[in-house]
């Protein structure tokens, strides 16, 4: 009988914090600036420069730790992690090993198999390294230090996940909490959320942990899923052939959908950690912790429950609308303005999500004024515009945040309520379709739909279908 294998997965997740300045200096953290323009002697590792801790980083770390049910180390400090790499200007990284700010937390995830608790070993604060840019034309590598010193929180889970589905559910939960807290936008494609996957396999029923590998360079949920599946298969194949899995760091290539070894996996001793002599240990006062706790937002589960109660939404709608804080804020503001929460939910979940998927956008990219969507919903409900044309207007609102009523008027999309104009079109259609009229009189009621369609065509879709139907019946 063939052996059955189980995958054991733990994650190291780096979240880039949305502070205005870096962790140990006053340089900007803004993404996308020209290379090496957001730098100073501290973040480029110049001799004699001294770090000064950004208080906001500690505040954000405490807020995330509380949201993830962690214990807080009231006394914590920074350590130096020593290693040489060209994008690491000091030849060490300031991180936390011995006394991280948060430890022993957990998050609850939901998958097809139900609810599961994923334990969090620790969370610690650290600085990011710079970025190497490989120039194939010149056959050289260039270093951009803009990212050097950008504040990170690293969240280290216990090896509690068994499938790619559980990994994605955990990452989505973590991303949602960070976005609700406002501490990070967690955009994987921009590197503000990065996940390293530690994976091993073992025979089902075994308590023994297999040899793990660490997978890096994973910048999308799709890449993470493929990397997990690919690495699981690779390790099982090695074991089936009687070979050993080597503990190493592997780099995932999204284009080739395969990984290759980068280096042997280091242990803590390889980094020669020691307490950072330039940074004082921190004592975290009770009053400060209580202030941060009192400012914690209403998270997804609480907000979804409130939407069911306050707006009368089905549980499914409430769950979808609260997946991101931005979408939830957009829904709430629009629903309050137009007084029609169900229609608001329908527009955002239906046409809104369809257009976002079509354009490859995230919910956070919806940057229109809630009043404009509220005005469009009121126009549809008031019979000023039909559904087909309203969809065109919504697409324009999503793209350029146009004022809907002005745009409808300019583009001639408003419904014609002039009964004289509609009656003229009805008379024309009846005159042009004598056979269809005869069929109607002989009892074929279904042909009425065809006649309504012909009138709407003449009116370029801008007539009230109810009025068209009524006039046709009257004439017939």
Automatic annotation (TrEMBL):
Primary gene name: gatB
The keyword Transcription appears for this protein: no
Enzyme Commission no: 6.3.5.-
GO biological process, one term: glutaminyl-tRNAGln biosynthesis via transamidation
Lineage start: Bacteria, Bacillati, Bacillota, Clostridia, Lachnospirales
Asn/Gln amidotransferase domain residues: 329-476
Subunit structure: Heterotrimer of A, B and C subunits.
Chain positions covered by the region annotation Disordered: 251-276
Keywords linked to the UniProt accession: ATP-binding, Ligase, Nucleotide-binding, Protein biosynthesis, Transferase
GO MF annotation terms: asparaginyl-tRNA synthase (glutamine-hydrolyzing) activity; ATP binding; glutaminyl-tRNA synthase (glutamine-hydrolyzing) activity; transferase activity
Domain of life per record: Bacteria
Homology family: Belongs to the GatB/GatE family. GatB subfamily.
Function: Allows the formation of correctly charged Asn-tRNA(Asn) or Gln-tRNA(Gln) through the transamidation of misacylated Asp-tRNA(Asn) or Glu-tRNA(Gln) in organisms which lack either or both of asparaginyl-tRNA or glutaminyl-tRNA synthetases. The reaction takes place in the presence of glutamine and ATP through an activated phospho-Asp-tRNA(Asn) or phospho-Glu-tRNA(Gln).
Statement: the UniProt record of this protein carries the keyword Protein biosynthesis: yes
Name of the molecule in the record: Aspartyl/glutamyl-tRNA(Asn/Gln) amidotransferase subunit B
InterPro entries on file: Asn/Gln-tRNA_amidoTrfase_suB/E, Asn/Gln-tRNA_Trfase_suB/E_cat, Asn/Gln_amidotransferase, Asn/Gln_tRNA_amidoTrase-B-like, GatB, GatB_C_1, GatB_Yqey_C_2, Gln-tRNA_amidoTrfase_suB_CS
Ranges of Basic and acidic residues composition bias in the record: 251-275
Catalytic reactions on record: L-aspartyl-tRNA(Asn) + L-glutamine + ATP + H2O = L-asparaginyl-tRNA(Asn) + L-glutamate + ADP + phosphate + 2 H(+); L-glutamyl-tRNA(Gln) + L-glutamine + ATP + H2O = L-glutaminyl-tRNA(Gln) + L-glutamate + ADP + phosphate + H(+)
Organism expressing this protein natively: Blautia faecicola
């Amino acid at each position: 009988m063939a052996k059955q294998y189980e995958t054991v997965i733990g994650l190291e997740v780096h979240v880039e914090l949305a502070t205005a300045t870096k962790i140990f200096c006053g340089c900007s953290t803004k993404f996308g600036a020209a290379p090496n323009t957001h730098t100073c002697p501290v973040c480029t590792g110049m001799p004699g420069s001294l770090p000064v801790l950004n208080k906001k980083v500690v505040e954000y770390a405490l807020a995330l730790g509380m949201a993830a049910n962690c214990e807080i180390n009231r006394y914590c400090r920074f350590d130096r992690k020593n290693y040489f790499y060209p994008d690491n200007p000091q030849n060490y990284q300031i991180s936390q090993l011995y006394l991280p700010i948060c430890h022993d937390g957990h998050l609850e995830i939901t998958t097809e198999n139900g609810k599961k608790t994923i334990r969090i070993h620790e969370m610690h604060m650290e600085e990011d390294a710079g970025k190497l840019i490989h120039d194939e034309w010149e056959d050289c590598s260039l270093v951009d230090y803009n990212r050097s010193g950008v504040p990170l929180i690293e969240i280290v889970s216990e090896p509690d996940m068994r499938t790619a589905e559980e990994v994605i559910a955990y990452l989505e939960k973590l991303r949602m909490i960070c976005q609700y807290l406002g501490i990070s936008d967690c955009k994987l494609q921009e590197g503000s959320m990065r996940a390293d996957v530690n994976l091993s396999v073992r025979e089902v029923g075994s308590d023994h942990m297999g040899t793990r590998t660490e997978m890096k360079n994973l910048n999308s949920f799709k890449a993470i899923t493929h990397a997990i599946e690919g690495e699981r298969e690779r390790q099982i194949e090695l074991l089936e052939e009687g070979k050993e899995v080597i503990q190493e760091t592997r780099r995932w290539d999204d284009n080739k959908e395969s990984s290759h070894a980068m280096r042997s996996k280091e242990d803590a001793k390889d980094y020669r950690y020691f307490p950072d002599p330039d940074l004082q240990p921190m004592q975290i006062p009770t009053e400060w912790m209580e202030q941060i706790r009192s400012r914690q937002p209403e998270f997804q589960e609480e907000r979804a429950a409130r939407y069911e109660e306050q707006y009368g939404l089905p549980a499914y709608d409430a769950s979808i609308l609260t997946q991101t804080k931005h979408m939830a804020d957009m829904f709430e503001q629009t629903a309050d303005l137009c007084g029609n929460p169900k229609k608001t939910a329908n527009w955002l979940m239906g046409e809104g999500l369809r257009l976002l998927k079509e354009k490859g956008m995230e919910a956070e990219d919806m940057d229109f004024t809630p009043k404009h969507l509220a005005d469009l919903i009121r126009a549809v409900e008031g019979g000023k515009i039909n559904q087909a044309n309203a969809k065109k207007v919504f697409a324009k609102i999503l793209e350029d945040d146009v004022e809907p009523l002005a745009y409808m008027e300019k583009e001639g999309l408003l419904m014609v309520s002039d009964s004289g104009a509609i009656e003229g079109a009805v008379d024309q259609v009846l005159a042009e379709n004598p056979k269809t009229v005869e069929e109607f009189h002989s009892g074929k009621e279904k042909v009425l739909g065809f006649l309504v369609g012909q009138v709407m065509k003449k009116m370029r879709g801008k007539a009230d279908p109810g009025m068209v139907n009524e006039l046709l019946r009257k004439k017939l």
